Amino acid sequence: MKNTQQITKAMKQVAAAKIRRAEMLQRQSRPYADAIGAMLRDLMANVGSVDHPFMKPGREGAPAGVILMTADKGLAGSFNANLIRMAEIHGRDHGDLAWYAIGIKSRNALRRQRGATLQFWPLAQGDMFANARELAQRVTDDFVGGKISSLTLISPQLVNMMTQRPEMRQILPVTPDRDQPKGTNVQGAVEFEPSPEFVLGRLLPKYLEFTLYSAMLETNAAFYAAQLIAMNNATDNAKKLIDENTVEMNKARQAAITKEILEIVGGAEALAG
């Protein structure tokens, strides 16, 4: 038990150290994500029509594409299991699916799912931004080429250190905000050159690329948060078990000592009698 406690305590310290860097990267990427999202909403509100594949429905009859994003490792409580369960439920509701696996746990889980796994990328191995760019290029080629009809992302949402919630959202095709009427510029003083349509056509690929990269950063941070909580609970549980076993050991040792004393006293009394 003490050896196990040392291992869980060490993993807790490692997770606490790594989550600081993961959260820092996520916070640094958030302003860019907010800015590109606001610009995209402005463009879609001002554009009349744009001839871009991302804003058109996918090929009819093609399977729907799903990106399942998990961690590479376990020992994080129900973090990976919750994401895999959401993917399984989505797979039962939609029969014909094409999967993209992000994370080793995702790849292992998708081997039991119906539908083909088109490609796999690790989450935290190598250059994460390069992996996100390669993933964006692959799903773009498959969507434009008619291999998939849509693209859905299943990834965790880092609410806080205690809560990591699975989230499912549609990435492609990109649909305008229905609550925002067309022809109204939210910013009011923004002008797009040479035209909103041209800027939107250049912005959509970057938006997809950074959306996937941001999801990878959030998944990485959420994993370390879940692992930190899991290893903290495991360390506390090990301490409780050590205390309980120590009490039982002391009771057994005291009982053995008392028995020996009684035997000695009884033998002495018998000799004296």
UniProtKB/TrEMBL annotation:
It is found in: Cell membrane; Membrane. InterPro entries: ATP_synth_F1_ATPase_gsu, ATP_synth_F1_gsu, ATP_synth_F1_gsu_CS. It is a peripheral membrane protein. The keyword Cell membrane applies. Its main location: membrane. Pfam families: ATP-synt. One of its GO terms (molecular function) is ATP binding. GO terms for biological process: proton motive force-driven plasma membrane ATP synthesis. GO terms for cellular component: plasma membrane; proton-transporting ATP synthase complex. Keywords: ATP synthesis, Cell membrane, CF(1), Hydrogen ion transport, Ion transport, Membrane, Transport. The keyword Transport applies. HAMAP family: ATP_synth_gamma_bact. F-type ATPases have 2 components, CF(1) - the catalytic core - and CF(0) - the membrane proton channel. CF(1) has five subunits: alpha(3), beta(3), gamma(1), delta(1), epsilon(1). CF(0) has three main subunits: a, b and c. Belongs to the ATPase gamma chain family. Produces ATP from ADP in the presence of a proton gradient across the membrane. The gamma chain is believed to be important in regulating ATPase activity and the flow of protons through the CF(0) complex. This is ATP synthase gamma chain. It comes from Vulcanimicrobium alpinum. The gene is atpG.
